[in-house]
Amino acid sequence: MKTDERGHPIGATDTDTDTGTHPAADTDADGRERTGRPHRRDLVAAAVGFALVTTAALVGWAIQRSDGSLQVNWPPLLGTWDPRVGPGTPAALAVAVLIIAYGPGLAARLPWRALLLTTWAAALAWTFSLALVDGWHWGVARRLTTKNEYLTVIDRFSDIGVTLRGFSDHIVIGPPGNWPAHVAGHPPGATLTFVWLDRIGLGGGSWAGVWCIVVGGSAVAAVLVTLSALTDERTARRAAPFLALAPAAVWMGTSADGYFAGVAAWSLALLALAATRTVRFPAAAALGAGLLYGFTCYLSYGLTLMALPGLGVLLLARTARPLPLVLAGALVVPVAFTLAGFNWWEAYQELVVRYYQGAGGVRPYWYWIWGNLAATTLAVGLATVAGLGRVFALTPRAVRSTRPAREPSTPLLRLAVLVLAALLAILAADLSGMSKAETERIWLPFMLWLIPATALLPGRRRGWLAGQAIVALLVNHLVFTGW
Description:
Mean pLDDT: 91
Structural class: mainly alpha
Strand order of the largest sheet: 1-2
Shape: globular
Order of helices and strands: HHEHHHHHHHHHHHHHHHHHHHHHE
């Protein structure tokens, strides 16, 4: 059998992939062989996800019509009903058909490095085509230039040091010159990214939009690298088409949260490579993981929760060896910002005040505690929900496999642990009450780590891929998902 440059087999056929030859995908938890058809429990899990979304929509519409307290026009999503087609529609349809038809086969046969680049390219094609349904101006160039966005304050960073020292003074609504919503809602690392792009001649909404989509799209390659290091390469290959065709692409293009997702994903990927020592210079990888994690915390306050998947990576690798270098790297960015005059904790406390001054103080916690999960279901798709059903079934064994006196771990169990760590981060964010609505966008860095659960789905999976594409196409063509 042919092998790739890493010595892994690449001779699997499309039929092999679709009928579930992967040992982690062709047997149930108790070892029984699976059939080539979707299992009833997968369909039940998907039906539960559909019911959650439907209930959230019906209850949400009733609340919004009653008192407007949800502060969204199309619950559980932040968006406006706006049926349309556009320049990106034919491209989106073509990309979806190509990934559904050829994605599983190519994922099984391509050399590993080629698969990483191909999956990234496919994700970019999918995201750009969905964004271009609204045309270049409305779909890409203008998204980060509206009144609540980052590019509106570039001129206020002419002296970065002075601006950082006074950044917290402009978060709460009231004093003159308070920051727009997204600038106030994030540490200054987010805005500084666009300031630095402007300084090197890549200013304006087009460059900012392209930056977010390209960096965000690279997250799928980072997830595959992590899966290969922690589970095995064939598990990563089974997840690849679903990562490329994720409904989350609707919000990856174009939002800064897509960029945040890319940075956070590569932090975990480098950590996985360092922990498993599957890279030439594991010390450099550990330091890089820490640097990216530290910067991630200065892109979004809530992304400190990426520490939970990070702990999951170390747990799966059964080592704390990279931790000193990771912590050293993670301290670099906070020290730099603190010396420059920005106090992260003080700013976060001001943000809590600002949050409850606005929609966060009106939106009912009791609805969004589960409405957020409905929005997440739309962003990850019903195939991911079906995969999560299998993860939950494996949870007892997966947890036992992480103990010192454990049963032998398998790629299937290790995948379950990784997905559960990401889900734990989402639940923590949900319970915090600081993420009421807009989670289809805000939780992108966490949601990408749920999608690999699709690698557990057996049988001919093109139907599941088609379902993912249909969700994305319907949402993108029926709802204008502005913010």
